[in-house]
Design a protein that fits this description.
Chain lengths: 254, 297
């Protein structure tokens, strides 16, 4: 597959969304709602459940699977409240020494009047700065689109993994083509140039692991669940200060 | 700072060491219909109201149009010169490269370096504001509208790391359209890198004042711009996450007057102080003094 085919694949209808992953990997998930400031943003879902017998805080950007779901979850485009809810749940996880797992799948943070009025920039900035200094293990997995700052807000983690046909980029290839070349038809070319595929990202050090998808069969979720459990088991042995320092170094290298 | 010095930064960069040897472009007779070329030494046209303003007058007024009050963008060295004394540049050697081998980017960078005489889109260093030592950075609109790629992120990160080590406050003049898209994911990672350095500086109990100037949007807005202890916004500056055109295209309606301007941002609770350019130095000095001067009670 070329880069543009992967871009299309990452957005494909019927692709598993965060809720599907949670259903398959997390046991006894209890959803927790709201940012305690303004609203409950359904584009970001969060809660607590077990992975490999360990309580974990799980946060996911949810795109929705059918028409009603897509509307309910605003197509995975979070408002400031989504990021503020995520920060609230991360700080709660830190308090109870729980690891944090984020599923990232968004074309980008929502851009609109309300989002701007309520400080989208500040919300994302706070999410990044809180997550990057969080004194508990963190893992982010990009499961579809990793769209710019909206994705980074939940990806300032100890490690970032990505599934085979997902992307992670500073801008959509459509946006890039239209801004740089004033030609939205050059999307395929922009997809190549942006180096947004899992393979490129691994080479650039932006992700630590590419997860094979195997057509998203049951074995895929089982293996992913085991890998996540093993990751948290290992990281839970590391003193919090060392985790934070290692995370600093992870992002410092860019 | 004398206004002659500000003018020097503001209005022209000598194209070679001998300033007097530049060609006088105004001697060419304009063709019919061609806009008249105004010699940049004497006067200029306000980009907002279109009135002709004497350059001396404009410089004396810190680049604010005396007729309509429009704020002209300030190059970083002029901005620093306006606010700080004894500026000593740091990390000047830092320059970015074409990390993704993005087509046309090498040429673009080379052209910008040639045009601006700067290596990248931010100037960093140390200086004094109202007698208080601080670390400073100022972003450059001339460099792809202050967009953040590796070099910009690296210089800002180093500035915070230096300030943390030397126990200095940081004053940052923010100006950016967002991420440098030609650097792809590397540019996105600068948001996380700079944020981590801001966090460490803050954990050391040190002050960071961000001055958001026109424009502050995108990835820079969603990282170190909004992570400061005190957020100042220059009067009238456009401040937001998404740019107004992108929002209009998304929601298919016109945005209200004043949307995302500094005054709006303050009203919504996201900026502490709106500052006029002429009082900026004084306001910064007062805040720095409250945080950094010895208490003599």
């Amino acid at each position: 597959m070329n880069a543009y085919e992967i871009v299309l694949k990452s957005r494909e209808k019927g692709r598993p969304t965060a809720l599907k992953y949670i259903g398959k990997i997390v046991d006894g998930f209890i959803e927790l709602h709201g940012d305690r400031r303004f609203a409950d943003d359904r584009a970001v879902i969060g809660g607590i459940g077990y992975i490999g017998g360990r309580p974990v805080t799980v946060i996911g950007i949810e795109k929705g699977s059918d028409t009603n779901g897509k509307i309910e979850h605003n197509f995975g485009c979070a408002h400031p409240e989504g990021y503020r809810k995520a920060v609230r749940l991360m700080k709660q996880a830190e308090k109870f020494h729980r690891p944090v797992l984020c599923f990232v799948d968004t074309s980008g943070a929502y851009c609109g009047i309300g989002a701007e009025e309520r400080g989208q920039s500040e919300a994302i900035a706070s999410s990044i700065i809180e997550m990057i200094r969080l004194k508990t293990p963190t893992l982010s997995i990009i499961i579809g689109e990793g769209g710019s700052g909206g994705a980074l807000g939940l990806s300032a983690a100890d490690e970032v993994w990505i599934t085979e046909t997902s992307t992670y980029s500073v801008i959509s290839p459509e946006g890039c083509a239209s801004i740089l070349w004033k030609d939205s038809a050059k999307v395929a070319e922009a997809s190549e140039c942006l180096k947004l595929t899992a393979e490129d990202l691994l080479r650039l050090g932006a992700v630590e692991k590419v997860v094979k998808e195997n057509g998203f069969n049951d074995e895929f979720y089982e293996r992913l669940g085991r890998d996540i459990a093993a990751f948290f088991a290992e990281k839970s042995e590391v003193p919090a200060e060392s985790l934070v320092e290692a995370r600093y170094a992870r992002f410092r290298k860019f | 700072m004398k206004f002659e010095d500000i003018k020097k930064f503001f209005f022209k960069k000598p194209k070679n060491a001998l300033e007097g040897s530049e060609e006088n472009t105004s001697e060419r007779i304009p063709e019919a219909g061609e806009p008249a070329v105004i010699p940049d030494k004497l006067a200029e046209k306000c980009e907002n109201c279109g009135q002709i303003i004497l350059s001396d007058e404009m410089a004396e007024n810190f680049g604010v149009c005396p007729k309509c009050g429009h704020y002209k963008k300030m190059p970083p060295r002029a901005r620093i010169a306006m606010c700080a004394e004894n500026f000593a540049e740091l990390f000047a050697e830092e320059e970015g490269g074409n990390v993704l081998q993005f087509p046309g980017y090498d040429e673009k960078l080379a052209a910008l370096r040639e045009k601006t005489g700067e290596k990248e889109g931010v100037i960093c260093g140390t200086g004094e504001i109202g007698g208080v030592s601080c670390a400073l950075f100022a972003m450059d609109y001339r460099f792809v509208m202050g967009s953040m790629g590796h070099a910009v992120g690296e210089k800002i990160t180093k500035t915070f790391e230096y300030a943390t080590e030397k126990k200095l406050p940081v004053v940052g003049f923010v100006l950016s359209g967002g991420a440098r898209m030609q650097e792809g994911i590397v540019s996105l990672m600068q948001m996380a890198k700079t944020s981590a350095a801001v966090a460490k500086h803050g954990e050391a109990g040190l002050l960071y004042i961000a001055v958001l100037t026109d424009p502050t949007t995108g990835g820079v807005s969603a990282s170190f711009a909004f992570e400061a202890d005190v957020i100042m916004a220059e009067k009238g500056a456009l401040i937001g996450f998404a740019g107004p055109r992108v929002i209009e295209q998304t929601i298919r309606q016109k945005l209200p007057e004043g949307f995302q301007r500094a005054e709006f941002v303050q009203k919504k609770g996201f900026a502490d102080i709106i500052v006029e350019r002429k009082e900026m130095k004084e306001k910064l000095a007062a805040l720095l003094k409250m945080h950094c001067a010895e208490v003599s009670a």
